[in-house]
Write a structure and sequence with these properties.
heterodimer; A: about 40% helix; globular; B: about 325 residues
């Protein structure tokens, strides 16, 4: 199983989600470098027009070409109250980095979200390994 | 009280947005101001033909639901947001609360724009009288106001977060329901602007609540958590009765309750707590979810089982300025 990288702000929602996943994960703090393929879990901070969705520390992290090259997929959280911009950061990162949006959940996620992501990641990495050269 | 008083007074401070102690104050201020809107921007009069297709009962229900929402917005604008200002830890938090108070007043004002576009004066007056006489609605207000007027900042934030993230939703359900039937779609657009604002308000109050919790003892933290869950139970009981009184006549009560459970969980998450209602009772009608977040590409994600349809963008070189701050 490859890695998980996540960003969590002061609300702690993503941190609580990752804690419940119970998988090894690296939190983006300051200068963070990764060395193996990973899935990114990130909250979304869009305004009502889709601007500003990706948190600045996540932007800094992905602006590093080495970090970006190891990104395999993105899981984004948010709030459906934002309408079409729900979990918009996932879409932006997917488009920018050429990776799929794997899953979206609200706030700190439900137990079903945790189970689905755990199961989904296992399948995803198995599949990634089988198509790897 | 004289000019020679030896007591040194605390200087009156000017707010300095170039020295921010808590970055979240600035981020939320920017979000709220960029999301600013007024009801005049929504062409509500386009809903007049649609309004005419509703039955008398459906029209009365809609006006009552909106009057109930107006009351909660009034409470939040005039009492709730203002009562949290003296609790503010930073001057910027106080400023954010003035924005929240004003936007709640804009929300309350918006319902009157809907009324003046669609309803007769007599219908409007009847609904406002109803709102003052309805025991469930009055109890909702009383349960919250009690804590707004009490002395504890943490419990006040719990009450406020529940108002913003839970208590509105028995009302928000109806315009989402109409919208899913292609009725009152402009009104629904306006309500979606309110729903978006409430998400930021609930997030921010929940965030400040969590910072406050960090400064109290373990015992107090446990007491506050007990308080939050019992207040949620108390509020839920009233919401249930209010929902049945309003929606039994159109056969929607059970559907509305699922929406209440779902939003109660989100309100608790805003406070940093775990969800209360299990998945078996939070399966909100997909038509309501779609009305809440239209065009959000439902089921386009990989883990939801329709992985074939996910979109992989074309990779592009990234630099800071590309990312739409």
């Amino acid at each position: 199983m490859a890695g998980l990288v996540y960003y969590s702000s002061g609300s702690g929602n993503t941190q609580r989600f990752v804690d419940r996943l119970g998988l090894p994960a690296t939190r983006i703090l300051g200068e963070t470098r990764v060395t193996e393929p990973y899935v990114l879990i990130t909250p979304s901070y869009s305004d009502g027009y889709g601007n500003g969705a990706v948190a600045k520390p996540v932007i800094r992290f992905l602006n590093d070409p080495a970090n970006r090259s190891l990104l395999c997929g993105v899981i984004a959280s948010g709030n459906r109250n934002f309408g079409e911009y729900f979990a918009h950061a996932g879409k932006i990162i997917a488009a920018k980095c050429g990776v799929p949006v794997l899953y979206r959940f609200e706030l700190s996620g439900t137990d079903e979200d945790v189970a689905r992501v755990r199961q989904g990641l296992e399948t995803f990495w198995t599949r990634q390994r089988s198509i790897a050269p | 009280m004289n000019a020679q008083s030896p007591v040194r007074r605390t200087p009156t401070r000017a707010i300095n947005w170039n020295r921010v102690q808590d970055e979240t104050d600035l981020t939320v201020w920017n979000r709220l101001t960029s999301n600013f809107w007024l009801p005049e921007k929504v062409p509500l009069s386009n809903d007049i033909p649609s309004w005419a297709t509703l039955t008398d009962y459906e029209r009365q229900l809609t006006i009552r639901v909106f009057t109930g929402l107006t009351m909660l917005d009034t409470v939040q604008a005039s009492v709730g947001a203002v009562s949290m200002m003296p609790d503010a830890v930073t001057p910027h938090e106080e400023a954010v609360l003035t924005n929240i108070a004003f936007m709640e007043a804009v929300h309350a004002r918006s319902y009157s724009s809907i009324f003046s576009t669609l309803c007769s004066t007599q219908e409007i007056d009847e609904a406002f009288r109803w709102s003052e006489e309805n025991t469930h609605l009055q109890k909702k207000a009383d349960l919250i106001l009690k804590h707004y007027r009490a002395t504890d900042p943490l419990r006040r934030k719990v009450a406020s977060c529940f108002l913003e993230s839970f208590m509105f939703y028995s009302g928000f359900y109806l315009p989402m329901h109409w919208s899913s039937r292609a009725k009152l779609t402009n009104t629904a657009d306006l309500i979606r602007l309110i729903i978006r604002d409430e998400a930021v308000h609930g997030y921010y109050i929940g965030y400040k609540f969590q910072r406050g919790l960090e400064r109290v003892t373990e015992a107090e933290r446990a007491a506050v958590k007990d308080f939050a869950f019992s207040l949620m139970f108390e509020l839920y009981e009233v919401e249930e009765a209010y929902t049945e009184e309003l929606y039994d006549g159109v056969g929607l009560s059970e559907d509305v309750k699922k929406f209440l459970h779902y939003n109660a969980n989100k309100a608790l998450m805003n406070l940093g707590y775990e969800a209360l209602f299990p998945a078996s009772v939070t399966d909100v009608n997909p038509a309501i979810l779609a009305a809440l977040s239209p065009n959000s590409d439902e089921n386009h994600d990989f883990f939801s089982g329709s992985g074939s349809s996910y979109v992989i963008g074309k990779a592009v070189a990234t630099e800071d300025e590309d990312w739409d701050f």
